[in-house]
Structures are given as structure tokens and as C-alpha cells.
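Please check these two lines:
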Amino acid sequence: TFKGNPVPKNRLEVKISGELGGLGPSLPTDALDSWRGTYAVDGEVAGTLTNPKVSWVFDSKDFAAQEVSIGDLLISGAADLEAVNIANLTLSGPSGTVQGTVDYEFASKSVEAELNSDGLKLENIFKLVDSPPVVRGAYTGTITGNGTIAPLELNADLQGNFYNLDINDGNDFPIVQLPVLASQIRTQITDRRITIERATLGQKNLSIQTFGDITLRPEVMLNLTSNISNISLKPLSPIVGLEFGGAGQAAVSVDGPPEDITVSGSARLKKFELEGLRFGSVRSALLYKDRKIELPNLTLQRDSGTARGKVIVDIDTPGLDAELNFEDIAL
């Protein structure tokens, strides 16, 4: 519905309301076809024809996109022929809460944003871009960004905490599971790629340094490198069906589409334990592919003894296959 009420002093009040789903066919883009919910706009146009001033409040209830329930969206701001200032952007609902400000300049097509999030659901972000939710959990912290909209070239910084973080291989095999993970992340975002320039993640003694690319189009592809310190083997125990112990460091690369990733690299561990047996230090290359973990050139050191060989762990079959040669290992 549309209501216009011209009033004195070059001022026009505008009220618009309706269903978001009805906007798609009337616009020259299919980007809004999946939008659902109701909306209401309460606006005002003032000034002259050569220098109009616009202010508005956009209020959407039960907003959803790509079959993802996002919540209620409130946007208030003002605009003239030079810029748009969103003084209050608030989103709250099943996907978490986001609140902040956005400024946009027409001439330079540049944008600046400062947002605060609370419990922002990570899996819903992947669903919005039609990708398997390889990352689950929630993010609470600040998001600041600047750049251009057309073409889309943004720099973004995140500083906060991830909660109940679960990074999987696209087939629900957990690669990382942590209750809390502090983060400082710097990224570059285009319409085709997210480049992680630097990501520092940590929990207690655990430290993760990550960089690389996430390609968005024509299909989602990962190309990430991580250096991990003080990684623990205990979370691997329920997955493999054997009791592991020990900690160490690893350098890994994650490549491929989310539903069929390959993880490769190397690891060095200390105080390695298996089913209560203490083996000492371990080093090996490592490979994860097709739901199998392979250590192709494992070297195990216990006191003056050594064991060398390979180990394969099939995620779908509890236990492991090992072929090892022992030299002076004390039993």
C-alpha cells in the first residue's frame, strides 16, 4: 500500500507497507525473490527539487531469505544527493543480533560500516550463499568495514569470540570443535572471493594462525593455510573410538569444495598416548581425504627406541590400520 500526504513547506510524508515477497517481480533483479516477511516504511522528503533531503524508518518483521529465518530488521537513516547515513541498523531473531551504523557516498560508491553482533549464527551465513554449513556456532564481537559497493571490494575486521565453534568437512566430520575461541580477523571481500589476510585465533594455550582464500563463485572453494600450536588429541578419541592423549603443533592446508575438502600438512606431537600406552614424541606428514586420516611417514620416538611406518584411520570404521617397524622400543 502507498499513502502520500503533501504538507506545507516543501515536505512530503510517505508511508509504504506490504509483503517482501511481492517486491521481487517488480524489481529488475532476482536477488529478492527468496525474501519473505512484512515491511513498513515511514519516510519524509523535504527540501527542494535540486537539494532533497530524505529520512526514513524501515521496519521488517519475520524477515527470511533463502529459507533462512533471520528475524526482525529495523533500519533508520537519512539521505541527500551526496550520501546515505544509516544511523541505526538493528537485526534480531533466530540468526542472532546485529546492531550498528552504515555510511554510503554516491560519487565514490564507498561505504563504511561499524557493527556489533551477539550470537550471530555462522551456519546461516553459509546457507544464505547456498553452501553446506561447514562452520557452525555463533560469533559475538565487532565487525568494521570499508570499501566500495560497485564493484564490491570491502576490507573487513572482526574482533570477538566464536562460541561452540564446529568446523566440519561438509559431511559432518568435525575438524575443529571448541567451546570458545577468541579471534582477530582481517579480510578482503569481493563478489567472488573472501581473502583472509590474517586470522589469529586462540583458546587458553591453543593458538591458530590462518590465511588464504574462500572462493564464492562460480562455486564455493576453500584454499586456506593454518599453523596450529598446542593442539590436543583428546577431541579425536570419540571420533576414532580409541583413547588418545598428547599435544603438539601442526601446519595444514585446507583445499577443495566444502563437501569434499582435502586437509594436508605435517604434525609434531609430544607425550603421545594411545589406549593408556605412553609412546613419547611423534612426527609425521598427514592427509585427510574421503573420510580417512592418513599418516604416511610416521616416526615415533620413545626414550632411545624408534618406530617408523604408516597409520590410516577410517572415520566410518572405529579403530585404525597401522604398519610399523620397531627399533629398541621398551615395552
About this structure: The radius of gyration is 26 Å. The CA atoms of residues 157 and 186 lie 5 Å apart. The chain has a mean pLDDT of 85.
